[in-house]
Design goal:
about 40% helix, about 450 residues, 8-stranded parallel beta barrel, alpha/beta
C-alpha cells in the first residue's frame, strides 16, 4: 500500500476522499441564445465564501470545483482570472483540495460548440494556462461527463449544437475526448504528479424483450466509447465501424491509441437512478430506475479499465418524508463499501452537489426556475437532512476506513504542503501509484 506522510489529518484524507461539489454547468439552449449558468442561478458568485464555509462545516477536505470557463476563457490566449484567483486563493488558505472541473457541459461563445474542431487545442491551451497560474493544484477533471456532454449536445438535441444525429454525436465525442487528452498532456508538462479523476456517467441498458436485445447490446457497447478513447483502449469491432461510418478518420482514432495516459487516472464514475435504461425493440429508451445499482455497474467498468475507482456524483431529491435522500446516501455508501470489500480499489465518494440545483428536472433544457432539492444545503444555505447524515457519515468513517481496509492510498499533496519536501515525497509516491494502479489486497468486511 502506498504510504502517506505528514500529520494525522493528511494521512487520513489521503486514504479516502470524502467529497462534494459546486456545479459549474454552462450549456447553451434555444439555439445558443440562452446560457444556463448553475453557479449564477444557485448564487455561488455572491456567496462563494459562505459556500466554502459550508464545505468545512461538513468536515470535507475535497471539493469538485472549477472556474466558469465562459467567464474566464475570453479568447485565444486571453483570460480573466479575477474570480478564479479569489476563489482558489481561499481554497488554498483553507487547505481544501480542489478536483478542478475545467469544462462542464459548455464552451465560451467565441468557440461556438463541440462541433468546432478548434475546441480541442484551444481547451488544452486553457488547461495549460490554468496549471501555470495555480501550480499547487494537483487533481483535475478536465472535461466533465464526456459521454453525457456529447449525447445531450449532439444526439438528443438538448444543449449547445442541439443536433440529433450519429454524425453529430461522434464529432462532438472525438473533439471532447481529444480535448481531455490534450489537456492532460499540457497539465502533466507543468505538474508531473497530476492525477486526473474522470467524472463519467456509468450507464446500463436493459433489454425489455428478446426483440430489444440487439439495440440494448449496441447501447451497452456505445456507453464505453468516451473512456475507451480517453484511456487508449481499442474499441470493439462494431464500435470501430460505427465511429468510421460517422466521420472519425483512422488518423483521429490512432491519436487516442498513441496517447495513453491511463496510468495518471482515477476512474471517477457517477450514478443516479436515471443511469439505468429500459430498451424497447424500436430502440426507444426510458428510465428503468435502480435495477443493478452502483456496485454492479461499477464492477463492469472496473473490469474493463482496471483503474482505482471514485464515486464522483450521486444525489436524490429530498421527498415528502425528508428521508428519501438520506436513505439514498446510505444505499450508495453501502455500495461503495461493497466494492472495497470485494477488492476493487475505491478511493472516494461524492454527494453532488453542495447546494440545491435549479432546473435539472428538465436536464437544464428549460429555464423554469424550479429548485431541485438535491443538495446538502438548500439555496438559503440551510443544511438539509442529507447534509446532516453525510456529516455524520464522514465523522464515523473517516478514521475507520484507513485503519480497517487495506486498499490503494492516493499520493495527494494538500494545498498547504504543495511545493515543499512533502511534495517531493508524494511525487515519488505518484510514480509508485502509476506503476501499481492495479495494486490491491483483500480487506475485512466493512459496514452494511
Amino acid at each position: 500500500m502506498l504510504s502517506s506522510r505528514g500529520d494525522g489529518r493528511n494521512a487520513a484524507i489521503a486514504n479516502f476522499m470524502f467529497c462534494t461539489g459546486i456545479e459549474n454547468s454552462i450549456p447553451t439552449i434555444q439555439n445558443g441564445r440562452i446560457r444556463v449558468d448553475q453557479m449564477e442561478t444557485c448564487g455561488h458568485y455572491e456567496r462563494w465564501r459562505e459556500d466554502f464555509d459550508l464545505v468545512e462545516e461538513l468536515g470535507i477536505h475535497f471539493l469538485r470545483y472549477g472556474p466558469p470557463i465562459h467567464r474566464t476563457f475570453l479568447g485565444p490566449d486571453k483570460f480573466d482570472w479575477e474570480f478564479s484567483d479569489l476563489a482558489f486563493a481561499e481554497l488554498k488558505r483553507r487547505d481544501i483540495t480542489p478536483i478542478v472541473d475545467l469544462c462542464h457541459f459548455g464552451v465560451p461563445d467565441w468557440l461556438g460548440d463541440f462541433q468546432n474542431p478548434d475546441f480541442s487545442m484551444q481547451f488544452a491551451n486553457y488547461a495549460g494556462a490554468f496549471a501555470d497560474r495555480y501550480p499547487w493544484v494537483q487533481l483535475y477533471t478536465p472535461v466533465n461527463e464526456m459521454f453525457i456532454c456529447a449525447v445531450f449536445s449532439a444526439k438528443y438535441g438538448w444543449w449547445n449544437e442541439q443536433l440529433t444525429t450519429d454524425l453529430g454525436f461522434v464529432t462532438a465525442l472525438k473533439h471532447i475526448v481529444k480535448a481531455n487528452v490534450l489537456a492532460m498532456i499540457e497539465i502533466l508538462k507543468r505538474r508531473s504528479d497530476a492525477i486526473f479523476v474522470q467524472s463519467e456517467s456509468s450507464e446500463y441498458f436493459h433489454a425489455d424483450s428478446p426483440a430489444a436485445i440487439g439495440p440494448a447490446e449496441i447501447m451497452n457497447a456505445r456507453r464505453f466509447l468516451s473512456l475507451d478513447l480517453n484511456y487508449g483502449r481499442r474499441v470493439d469491432s462494431e464500435m470501430y465501424e460505427f465511429l468510421m461510418d460517422c466521420g472519425m478518420t483512422k488518423e483521429e482514432y490512432h491519436f487516442f491509441l498513441h496517447h495513453r495516459l491511463k496510468q495518471h487516472c482515477i476512474l471517477g464514475n457517477d450514478y443516479y437512478r436515471t443511469n439505468e435504461h429500459r430498451v424497447h425493440p424500436n430502440g426507444h429508451t426510458e428510465a428503468a430506475g435502480e435495477v443493478f445499482g452502483y456496485s454492479e455497474i461499477t464492477r463492469q467498468y472496473y473490469e474493463r479499465y482496471r483503474l482505482p475507482v471514485m464515486h464522483t456524483e450521486t444525489n436524490l431529491v429530498e421527498g415528502p418524508t425528508g428521508q428519501e435522500a438520506v436513505q439514498w446516501l446510505w444505499k450508495e455508501w453501502a455500495n461503495v463499501l461493497r466494492l472495497r470489500n470485494v477488492g476493487i480499489p475505491t478511493v472516494g465518494f461524492t454527494w453532488y452537489s453542495l447546494t440545491d440545483q435549479v432546473d435539472w428536472d428538465t436536464a437544464l433544457r428549460e429555464q423554469n426556475g424550479n429548485v431541485n432539492a438535491l443538495g446538502l444545503y438548500d439555496l438559503d444555505r440551510k443544511i438539509r437532512n442529507v447534509g446532516r447524515a453525510y456529516k455524520q457519515l464522514i465523522a464515523d468513517w473517516r478514521d475507520v476506513l484507513p485503519a480497517s481496509s487495506v486498499c490503494l492510498v492516493v499520493p495527494i499533496v494538500p494545498p498547504s504542503q504543495a511545493g515543499g519536501a512533502h511534495a517531493r515525497d508524494q511525487e515519488r509516491d505518484a510514480d509508485r501509484f502509476k506503476e501499481g494502479e492495479e495494486g490491491q489486497a483483500s480487506s475485512p468486511e466493512l459496514g452494511p
